[in-house]
Amino acid sequence: MLFPHFNHGLIQIPFIVILSNLLLFFSIPHTALCQAPASPSEFDAKQMMARLRSALEREDTILANQIGHELQALGKAALPAIQDGLPTCNPAEAKHFTRILGGIDGSESTQLLIQLACLFPDSSIVTPAINAVGNRPIDFNLTANQFERLLTEVRKGPAFTAGAAAQILTRSPRNEKIDIVRPILERFMAEIGQPTTSEKFHGSYLSPQAYRLNLFLRTFADMRDQAIPEIKDALQRATAHETKKWLALALGMCGDKSVAQDIRSLIENDPDTSFRVVAVRAYARSDGENAVPLLQTLLTDNSQSEYDRMPDGSPVYPIRIAARSELARLTNAPAR
What is the DSSP secondary-structure string of 201-244? Predict the structure, then answer.
């Protein structure tokens, strides 16, 4: 017998069949063997995406919102389908993608939100996409296009969007902070002298001005030493009292101890409750543990917010809230 059979007494398979199967196996491209099929959830997401686009084309908003909730419920399994849809999406689809991604945590969804913000110049897309990023960590490098697009928002966008874009830029760990200090500082100073909006942010106990400027103050806390020389130079050239006050807070947020006592004096004497609230945060970062005694006395401060109240109608005491938060940060104790 030219080709003896294996496994005598069991299943008898001719050697030539085995040999041909082996040759076929090794002739298949390696990528085809390693490429995993889409999971059921990812397959479902692709079908949902097609249904979503169809619903939006028919202007069936109710159905589109329902499908959007279903996609969001899939979590990260929905991301490949959304990513595939970005290059060809229209503004209506982009708005729905933003809402879906806003409810999915993780670095991948954050990257897609930033991509969306940079795809369209329309503020009705850019603003929700940037705001949806919120306080998420930015643990990836921005592309050159994204960097420039966000800088454009800092310079020319609505105040709230500019502040949120500035925070994304300062939280990106692999971008040069020094390149963004001046544009952020210039917009901050412009908002002090000539505010672009007086709109109140819903749910905030701060005045519109304090809330708006606090968005930029938070970016200085991220830039710290890299921002100090620029801010000090601006402070030396400033002539308006209001500008000097806010620039002192910017230095405080950077951790500059040289302004600690000036900020303390502002907390004790400035008549604007909202300003004093953000001054408390700047003072705690400027004076560090030395700020604890004053912060403890502020836990009984009687200043009430003019802009918000508790659900039961009782007053909000924002300086107490700020002092409690900073004491918790300085002592590593939970804020209560």
Answer: PTT-SS-HHHHHHHHHHHHHHHHGGGTHHHHHHHHHH--SHHHH
Tokens 């999971």 locate to 39
* Separation between Cα atoms, residue 217 and residue 250, nearest integer Å: 6
Rounded alpha-carbon distances, angstroms, from residue 311 to 1, 203, 206, 305, 315: 92, 11, 16, 14, 9
pLDDT by position in tens, the chain (length 336) = 333 433 444 344 444 444 444 434 344 444 333 444 456 678 889 999 999 999 999 999 999 999 999 999 999 999 999 999 999 999 999 999 999 999 999 999 999 999 999 988 888 899 999 999 988 999 998 998 999 999 999 999 989 899 999 999 998 876 566 689 999 999 999 999 887 766 776 678 999 999 999 999 999 999 999 999 999 999 999 999 999 999 999 999 999 999 999 999 999 999 999 999 999 999 999 999 999 999 999 999 999 999 888 988 899 999 999 999 999 999 885 555
Contacts of 111-120 with C-beta under 8 Å, sequence gap 24+, read 111/140, 112/79, 112/82, 112/83, 112/86, 114/142, 114/146, 114/150, 114/168, 115/86, 115/146, 116/86, 117/149, 117/150, 117/153, 118/145, 118/146, 118/149, 118/150, 119/86, 119/89, 119/94, 120/91, 120/94
DSSP letter (8 states) at residue 24: H
Tokens matching residue 12:
């008898």
- Give the residue from 269, 178, 170 showing the smallest Cα distance to 220: 170
Name the one residue in this structure whose structure tokens are 């503020």.
Answer: 123
Q: What are phi and psi of 105, to 5 degrees?
A: -80, 165
Report residue 124 as tokens.
């009705």
Structure tokens at 296: 């403890």
Tokens coding 218: 């938070």
Residue 250 exposed, middle or buried by CB count within 10 Å (0-12, 13-18, 19+):
buried
181: Cβ–Cβ under 8 A, 6 or more apart, which residues? 223, 226, 227, 230
CA-CA distance, 297 to 18, in Å (whole number)?
Answer: 85
Measure the CA–CA gap between 206 and 280, rounded to whole angstroms: 13
